[in-house]
Write a structure and sequence with these properties.
alpha/beta; 9-stranded parallel sheet; 7-stranded mixed sheet; 16 helices; 16 strands; about 35% helix; globular; binds zinc ion
């Protein structure tokens, strides 16, 4: 089944942190994008497409004034924390105790988990996000709920059961044995089913024993193609806790390296306080970092030094994460704006093209999925977001004075949120259109 989209379109063909951003982007003022069987079959100037007979007898969704981008990719988010977004007045460890841990205890109930998973997935789509790397809870039911909701919409989703065997409420603890067994069962049930991918998910070093981290490492080694996610260097008190618990390790990353939890398909959330040696190690072993700026602001965790991490002599692969519920929005536009603001507070400047790259192709690279998603090119999975840079009166005022695609994007990033998402396509199907419920 073929479908067409028409509008301004933009995608990346290279990394704008490593070379002139203008050489990294493909931009069509008026593009024709054809999708077939869930994949992009064709993209070119609309006029060229018409001349080539590509638009004949085809239903075309026209988006005048909008910008069509690859669907956004959220590389770090906790779906069971949706209800505690905006939890007042705490740093990380206190916030976990006061808000996150109580909320997560409800997710052993499959009906509740399914209700929140359904809402979460719909909210992702309403925000233009088509793929996310998701932390569930320790309960296998929470993973079952999320994968079920993503699978029935044919979304490419990465998710896993949190592994946690110490330093949390008893109701949220598993054991070395049960965490291994339950994760294994979920891999067998879900990894590679449709577009679902399993992610081995030890929450972070302070809540896992040495033995549990080692079990996670074994499980990952035994199942090539699965992913691994955890947190690292988010907060100074958390880092002190890690040092007390793992006195023999040379750094936070060394704890994970020792357990076999670094390398391709590993993504570490935050890395705010990561030092040079560990950035270099991430570059060398292929581990990626999820930068979660709204969360870092909200919890007062600190400022991620993007340009240190992306030093062209040993660039670490970076994606953007909303980190809801520590983060304050599921919108990648809000997240890009916060990444820009974090850059300013570090006396650096992330350009609009660099920001959009992080939310699309960069995120796909961080999840080792850049051969499948994150680009508008023939053969790629047809996950697309249609953005309206004039979604509100002030946005229209700002957009009308933009003279370049770069500046148009920057206004959209700084002022935009879910109101700017006109439509979201998943594998070529329009699963969300603004103004249409359901
Ligand atoms: Zn997190």
């Amino acid at each position: 089944m073929q479908r067409g989209l028409r509008g301004r379109a933009i995608t990346f063909i290279a990394d704008p942190f490593l070379q002139d951003p203008l050489t990294c982007v493909r931009h069509w003022e008026d593009a024709l994008i054809l999708v077939e069987d869930g994949r992009i079959a064709y993209v070119d100037d609309y006029a060229a497409g018409v001349r080539a007979g590509r638009s004949v007898e085809l239903e075309i969704d026209e988006y005048p004034g909008a910008i069509i981008c690859p669907g956004f990719i959220d590389t770090h988010v906790h779906f069971p924390q949706l209800e505690i977004i905006g939890g007042f007045g705490a740093h990380l460890l206190e916030w976990l105790e006061r808000y996150a841990f109580p909320a997560e205890q409800k997710f052993g109930d499959i009906d509740y988990a399914t209700r929140i998973a359904d809402l979460f997935v719909r909210e992702l789509l309403r925000n233009g996000t088509t793929t996310a790397s998701v932390y569930c809870t320790v309960h296998p039911e929470s993973v079952e709920a999320l994968f079920s909701e993503a699978h029935r919409r044919n979304m490419r989703m990465i998710a896993g059961k949190v592994m946690m065997d110490r330093n949390a409420p008893a109701a949220l603890l598993d054991t070395v044995e049960s965490s291994y067994r339950q994760s294994l069962q979920l891999i067998e049930r879900w990894h590679g089913v449709g577009r679902q991918l399993y992610c081995i998910t030890p929450r972070f070093a302070p809540t896992s024993s040495d033995a549990q981290l080692a079990a996670a490492g074994h499980l990952w080694a035994e199942h090539p193609g699965t992913h691994m996610q955890t947190h690292i260097c988010e907060n100074v008190t958390e880092i002190e806790r890690m040092r007390e618990l793992f006195p023999d390790r040379s750094s936070y990353l060394d704890v994970y390296r020792h357990a076999g939890l670094v390398g391709e398909r590993a993504i570490f959330g935050h890395a705010i306080h990561m030092q040079e040696e560990d950035f270099a190690a991430c570059h060398n072993d292929g581990s990626a970092i999820a930068h979660c700026p709204t969360s870092n602001f909200f919890l007062g965790s600190g400022l991620f030094r993007m340009f240190d991490a992306r030093d062209p002599s040993r660039p670490v692969t970076i994606g953007l994460g909303t980190d809801v519920g520590g983060g304050t929005s599921l919108s990648q536009l809000r997240t890009m704006a916060a990444a820009y603001e974090t850059g300013r507070l570090c006396n650096t400047t992330i350009s609009p093209l660099q920001a959009l790259y992080l939310a699309t192709r960069g995120g796909a690279e961080a999840l080792s999925l850049d051969a499948y998603i994150g680009s508008i090119a023939p053969g790629y999975e047809a996950d697309l977001v249609v953005l309206d840079p004039a979604a509100t009166p002030v946005m229209k005022l700002r957009a009308d004075r933009s003279e370049s695609i770069s500046d148009l994007l920057f206004g959209l990033i700084m002022l935009g949120d879910d109101r700017a998402v006109r439509a979201t396509y998943v594998a070529g199907e329009p699963l969300y259109r603004s103004g249409i419920a359901g």
